[in-house]
Specification:
Helix content: 55-70%
Structural class: alpha/beta
Strand order of the largest sheet: 3-2-1-4-5
Radius of gyration: 27 Å
Number of helices: 21
Distance between the termini: 51 Å
Length: 490
């Protein structure tokens, strides 16, 4: 994950006089460092230059490796057809150069893309090619068997292949266990146990699933591998929740989140996977579990503590997203953050939480933190937000957007409207998430007035990312402008 340091080290060789084989190898390493930083266009260019050098020097094996790297770039760009072609060419080069390890890698990569394309024939032929390459190499190591098992399991889940493929996955994971035992590889051991636990989870055999998963946790701790540990803590939490062991599930979720806190600065680096894609489900599942138990709490102070823990949990996701966007772990510290619950007596902070089956609204009122529930799942809400955005972007006088603005008002504001009025609220601070970040929430419509006509409306990316200090009012220079009539420009 130290890509910038690697780039600085490699730059020493950039102007050096290198033999063609060295130059091609350098260009490949340079491309891999760029790929690790998500600089896909530059990485692809470096791989092209290396490929040209390799072909001119007759370096078939290195050319195959570069084709495989270009396939990885194409996959990261969301071009599966191009990736399939490149992985196929890499496989041919590996076979020509007699490199079974590269052949295995390229064939397995093509099988992954086949799942994305939902091409069963391509998947089966690619997996056969990978297994043939493994036999030519005399044996597959634990990591390779883990990769095969994961693809076999994915084929059941994503391609609808028969359950015997899950049995094939189990057999592959057992092969990985044997190889890991022979080599003393605790990390591979951990993944094999954890993946088998996942198979039992899929089969709803929860007792066995928990046994295998907990053994995977122990091995991940032994290997000092947080990147594996959080997965198995999360898996344990899901299993426990499915068995209605909610207090134990809460403990497991907390452990997974604590592990992610240590891991977060390097999570997903170079894999083209964002923090939200990789880890946010842990936080949202935990928040969902906490929210679902709120109504069972009799003590108002316990309810408020529970809701504050929900909000603090999801704040970690928002902070991680901002840090990831700016590639700077110090963003929050530099901002001098302050909890936004203290913005003023006439203000309310609205914190929407989009879940698959409902939308929760946490609202900070002068009397305390309240929970409101709208029975609209994230998919339906997202579609309505997209329609709203599409209509308000039209450059005409049509008012079609009002229908969507009214619907979003019903879902997001109406449930808490009476409480806002009763508390004398005049300012709303909204912390939008997901698709709600893409639209002006001030333009929500109650059927007669827009939201901004009733309240001052502010939005913020998170509760702890800003410092809401009032401006110095002694000497304020202000320029304000606006339109009294709208018009079309042609």
């Amino acid at each position: 994950g130290l890509y910038r340091s690697a780039e600085q080290t490699l730059s020493i060789l950039e102007q050096a006089r290198l033999e063609p084989a060295q130059r091609a190898a350098f260009q490949r390493e340079w491309g891999l460092v760029l790929l690790g930083q998500g600089r896909l266009t530059e990485a692809d260019q470096a791989f092209d230059e290396g490929l040209e050098t390799a072909y001119s020097a007759g370096l078939e094996r290195l050319a195959g490796a570069l084709l495989n790297d270009k396939g990885t770039v194409a996959a990261a760009r969301g071009a599966p057809a191009a990736a399939t072609s490149l992985f196929g060419r890499a496989l041919e080069s590996a076979q020509l150069s007699g490199d079974p390890v590269l052949a295995f890698t390229a064939a397995l990569n093509r099988a992954r893309i086949a799942i994305e394309l939902r091409d069963i024939g391509l998947f089966e032929s690619s997996l056969d090619a990978a297994l043939n390459a493994g036999r030519q190499a005399n044996s597959l190591d634990a990591t390779q068997w883990l990769s095969i098992g994961s693809l076999q399991n994915a084929a059941v889940r994503d391609l609808g292949l028969p359950a015997r493929w899950r049995k094939n996955a189990f057999d592959s994971y057992r092969q990985a266990l044997e190889r890991a035992s022979a080599s003393g590889d605790d990390l591979a051991f951990s993944y094999a146990y954890g993946f088998i636990g996942g198979l039992y989870e899929d089969e709803l055999r929860m007792e066995q699933a928990l046994q295998w998963t907990r053994q995977a946790e122990i091995l991940a701790i032994s290997a000092g591998a947080d990147e594996a540990l959080y997965r198995w803590q999360w898996q344990s939490a899901r299993i426990l929740r499915s068995e209605d062991a909610n207090e134990d599930a809460i403990s497991a979720y907390r452990q997974a989140i604590a592990t992610l806190g240590r891991l977060r600065p390097n999570l997903g680096q170079g894999e083209g996977v964002s923090f939200r894609e990789r880890a946010a489900p842990v936080f949202f599942e935990y928040a969902d579990l906490l929210l679902s138990r709120t109504h069972a709490l009799d003590d108002e102070s316990a309810v408020e503590r529970n809701l504050k823990e929900v909000r603090a949990t999801l704040e970690q996701v928002k902070v991680a997203e901002v840090q990831e966007y700016f590639q700077d772990q110090c963003v929050q510290a530099a901002g001098g953050s302050t909890e936004l619950d203290t913005v003023g007596a006439g203000s309310a902070v609205i914190y929407p939480i989009l879940l698959p089956d409902r939308t929760e609204l946490l609202v900070s009122l002068p009397s305390g933190l309240r929970q409101f529930t709208t029975p609209i799942g994230s998919a339906v809400l997202t579609q309505e937000v997209r329609e709203f955005r599409r209509h308000i972007e039209r450059y005409d006088f049509r008012t079609d957007y009002l229908r969507h603005a009214r619907q979003l008002y019903r879902w997001l504001i109406e449930p808490l409207e009476a409480d806002l009025v009763a508390a004398g609220i005049d300012t709303l601070v909204i912390v939008p998430d997901g698709p709600l970040r893409t639209v002006p929430l001030a333009a929500l419509y109650d059927g007669q007035r827009f939201l901004v006509e009733r309240f001052a409306v502010a939005t913020t990316p998170g509760l702890t990312l800003t410092s809401p200090q009032p401006l110095e009012r002694a000497q304020v220079n202000l320029f304000a402008g606006g339109l009294t009539e709208g018009c079309l420009l042609y």
